[in-house]
Amino acid sequence: MELIFLGTGGGRYVMMDQLRSTAGFQLGIDKKIIHFDPGPGALLRYSQMKLSPSKLDGIIISHVHTEHSSEAGALIEGMTYGGKTKRGFVITNKTFSETISPYYKKLPKDFFILSAGREIDLGIKIKAIKCVHGDPDTIGFLIKGKEGSLYYTSDTGLIEEQLKVRADVVVANLTALKGDGRMGIQEATQLANGIKPRKMILTHFGRKVLSYGPERIAKDMRDSTGVDVLAVRDSQLVNLELKQTVLGTFK
């Protein structure tokens, strides 16, 4: 299982000033490459990192907010070779499906609209997990394959259902220091204690989180939970195997 964080910024202020890139992240699992939440800068980051959206097998959009979805169309065009080849899949929620152009809906081989609790099998199993967020149809995702399992929280406050998820890896969006309906330090710590993953990766940092220090938060969480918690940076590569984790950085 391999994760590439094209961008680790979150929230409107970080997005507007591009204090960190808001390009989302890419998951490689069981020979499939999937991009999650392509916000502003996604296409540029692919070019800068010498990657290509034409290699994608799927694109997942958790909700309609700009820093999660604005470059979905561009990546769909890339995945389908400019719309010339009907390939790949898109998975999203009801709200975003109602805003994206019908043109982009018809380009991929499959276009799925999921609601919380629904699961589909595309060689890997993908289940939508309930979120509590400004877009009422926001969903997180539990991905299960031969190489392991990953839970992506998306943007959400903490609810009991999320604590019951079981995954090897948790990718948690830490937009705020104090939750207030979002994932803050206290909520992320509760999630780590509830799931006890092999690794928890913090990303999607808001302005106050960046000022406070994501690495500082990760260390405090490691000390308090015993979970291996990592705060990633833009262009970070995380290669996860059963016995070890290899970190790298794209230049």
How does this model look, in words?
The structure is a single chain. By secondary structure, the chain is α/β, with parallel strands linked by helices. The chain has one domain (2-249): 4-Layer Sandwich (Metallo-beta-lactamase, Chain A). It has 10 helices and 15 strands. The strands form 2 sheets. The chain has an 8-stranded mixed sheet. It has a 7-stranded mixed sheet with strand order 7-8-9-10-11-12-13. Helix 7 (160-163) links the parallel strand 10 and strand 11. The longest helix has 12 residues, at 214-225. The radius of gyration is 16 Å and the shape is globular. The mean pLDDT is 95.
Write down the overall geometry.
globular
Strand content: 25-35%
Give the domain tally: 1
Tally of helical runs: 10
CATH C-level: Alpha Beta
Q: What string gives the helices and strands in order? A: EHEEHEHHEHHEEEEEHEHEHHEEE
Q: If you average the pLDDT, what whole number results?
A: 95
Class of secondary structure makeup: alpha/beta
Radius of gyration: 16 Å
The CATH fourth-level homologous superfamily: Ribonuclease Z/Hydroxyacylglutathione hydrolase-like
- N- to C-terminal separation? 21 Å
Low confidence ranges: none
Oligomeric category: single chain
Question: What summary fits the major beta sheet?
Answer: 8 strands, mixed
Using the 3D structure, state the CATH architecture. Answer: 4-Layer Sandwich
> Which topology does CATH recognise?
Metallo-beta-lactamase, Chain A
Quick take:
By secondary structure, the protein is α/β, with parallel strands linked by helices. It has helices at 12-17, 42-48, 66-69, 72-79, 94-97, 102-105, 160-163, 185-195, 207-212, 214-225; strands at residues 2-5, 25-29, 32-36, 58-60, 89-92, 110-113, 119-121, 125-130, 139-145, 148-152, 169-173, 199-203, 229-231, 236-240, 245-249.
